[in-house]
Amino acid sequence: MKILVETPKYSFKKYRKKRRGYAVDLVSPIPTPFNYGIILNTKADDGLPQDAIILGEKQPQGRELEAEKLGVACFTDEGIQDNKIIVSTKKRVDWQDKIKINLFFHVYSLYKKIVGLTTKGRIPDTRFEGIIFEGA
């Protein structure tokens, strides 16, 4: 599948591809420990292109990669299933990657709840539900 890198590894800002360039979609309380992007020519349940976690070396924003699905990070955002497909430039997932994904999405979920409470006066139905790996 073709993947587009929107957010380089270690960024505090999550970017989203727009018609012309990239816009900041969210500022995270912790840096993203992986590259983050989308699977081109797809649409997820939230109506946006399917999200992808891209493991491996830091990639520049805008780079297109070919990768195979290694797993899924199961996530619900504002009550809508918003899973992230896990791919890797190194073609594998190691134990450190698993820890980074788990830690990041637990913190990210809590952060989104705090933001929802402080900006909308309610706690959104946002939660990280774990990781499923292919062939497991």
Short description:
The chain is of the alpha+beta class and 136 residues long. 19% of the residues lie in helices and 38% in strands.
What can you see in these coordinates?
- This protein has 136 residues and is α+β, with helices and mostly antiparallel strands.
- The chain has a single domain (2-133), classed as Inorganic Pyrophosphatase.
- The protein is built from one helix and ten strands.
- Strands 1, 4, 5, 6, 7, 8, 9 and 10 form an eight-stranded mixed β-sheet that branches. Strands 2-3 form a two-stranded antiparallel ribbon.
- The two termini are 21 Å apart.
- The model has no long low-confidence stretch (mean pLDDT 95).
Which key terms come to mind for this protein?
single chain; 136 residues; globular; 8-stranded mixed β-sheet; alpha+beta
* Mean of pLDDT: 95
Helix content: 10-25%
Q: Could you say how many structural domains there are in total?
A: 1
What's the overall geometry? globular
State the end-to-end CA separation.
21 Å
Largest sheet: 8 strands, mixed
What is the CATH H-level superfamily?
A: Inorganic pyrophosphatase
CATH fold-level name? Inorganic Pyrophosphatase
Task: Write down the oligomeric state.
Answer: single chain
Q: Could you tell me the number of beta strands?
A: 10
β-strand amount: 35-45%
Please write the string of helix (H) and strand (E) elements. EEEEEEEEEHE
Rg from alpha-carbon coordinates: 14 Å
CATH class: Alpha Beta
CATH architecture assignment: Alpha-Beta Complex
Number of helices: 1
